[in-house]
UniProtKB/TrEMBL annotation:
Residues annotated as transmembrane: 51-73, 85-103, 109-129, 150-173, 185-206, 240-259, 279-300, 307-324, 409-435, 456-475, 481-500
Keyword set includes 4Fe-4S: no
Domain of life: Bacteria
Residue ranges occupied by any Major facilitator superfamily (MFS) profile domain in the UniProt entry: 13-504
Lineage of the species this protein comes from: Bacteria, Pseudomonadati, Bacteroidota, Sphingobacteriia, Sphingobacteriales
Main location: membrane
CDD domains: MFS_ShiA_like (cd17369)
InterPro entries, sorted: MFS_dom (IPR020846), MFS_sugar_transport-like (IPR005828), MFS_trans_sf (IPR036259), Sugar_transporter_CS (IPR005829)
Protein name: MFS transporter
Amino acid sequence: MTSIPKQNSIFKVIGASSLGTLIEWYDFYIFGSLASIIGAQLFPADAGASALINTLAIFAAGFIVRPFGALVFGRLGDLIGRKYTFLLTLVLMGGSTFLIGLIPSYSSIGYAAPILVLILRLIQGLALGGEYGGAATYVAEHAPKGRRGFFTSWIQTTATLGLFLSLGIIVLAKNLIGASAFADWGWRIPFLLSILLVGVSIYIRLKMHESPMFAKLKTEGKISKNPLKESFSKKANFKMVLLALFGATMGQGVIWYTGQFYAQSFIENTCKVDFNDSRYILLWAIAFATPFFVVFGSWSDRVGRKWIMLGGMLLGIVFYRPIYQVFLDKTDLSQLQPTAIKDVAQPVITKTALHTAGDTLVNTSTKITLLNGSTFNKLQVDTVYANSNKPIGHAKEIMKDKTLTSGTFWLFVALVFFQVILVTMVYGPIAAFLVELFPTQIRYTSMSLPYHVGNGVFGGLVPFIATLIASFAGATPLSGLWYPIGIATLSFIIGAVYLANQTDENIND
């Protein structure tokens, strides 16, 4: 019979599991962090706002297939073991990410470019669907009772740290090679670098041993013959799957993606803040907030998981709209007075040929410096047609690439930090919460599905649905927030009524 490893080996387990999971999240989130730049590469030059929406749709597609990955790889994990299953997911994720970095642009292969990226994005989603459940289960099954919230919370940091790593490498690459080169070809660097990270993680994971609980079941011949059937055809288990989804992971998902991804997307694309500033804001906020995953995970061992997670949802429901209104107010240049302007640089004009021979897209960008030290670019877009009988199309002026004063920058950091604190509240305890709901022989399958439907589908669609809602006629920039607020409210109500305030003393081992 396999014995449970000594206490001090748990940190080796956490390290090996967390590194691979961090790299998978890094691979998965590079795409979202570069959505505006990738959109310009995958779609025609005159696609305008639809390029961003279409790119966010491709980004969202990876989330939609995550539940299918959870079913496929969850079943494998409950049949053949945790170790080899999430080793396979790592290989699939790393290979897909590397290939995205090699896909030619729209100008070279037309609409084959977004189609190929979509296919690889779907493979990424399937792989991630199998990764998280395996890593969380693996760590939980090594952890001693009474400490599962603490130890699994280290796995919970990897999603945010993967985002942090992706943002850091993106900013570093852009600053090293310059903005124009990065927008042209340098955006591929973070994708291509991932193959090195994956290679290191594969080497480490090959040295890992199987989970002691799963090894014990295998030795005793008690492995589930059909984990899918046991998870979803037995009434008691299926009830727990539904409760986990609608009472916890659904609300957790929208809080996670609003507080990090939508925050960065809103600051960059709606408030038109400079590329670097928008990412530095998130980097600082994540750096300050990440330790709280472990704080709330550990706290949940003592006071239970329920009210910590629901508290994070409730605070998001109450404070999202006021926070995002501050983002808008502090970047509003519509009432700018000429007396506030210190300097106006010489305009930079770029011309791009469109599909119809002779038609040209003309961008006139003028950098303006204000007396308070902040800057922005005034962009005027004109379409000059070859046919003189057609009028010259003129788009409204756009104020973009806004740099912030020091005070405003740190205010934004504080507001995003608060949102990431909410993320740590809902996400820190949830791995232990899910593990505790299901017995060992079907745990990988049972916990993976509600997690990836709630986090992947409801949460992962936040940037796309919120941006789409805000683009509707009559909508305001804050209209998109009704989606995460509505989902979090529903999950809060269901969780408050039906969830037990559990600790791991009642875990189904």
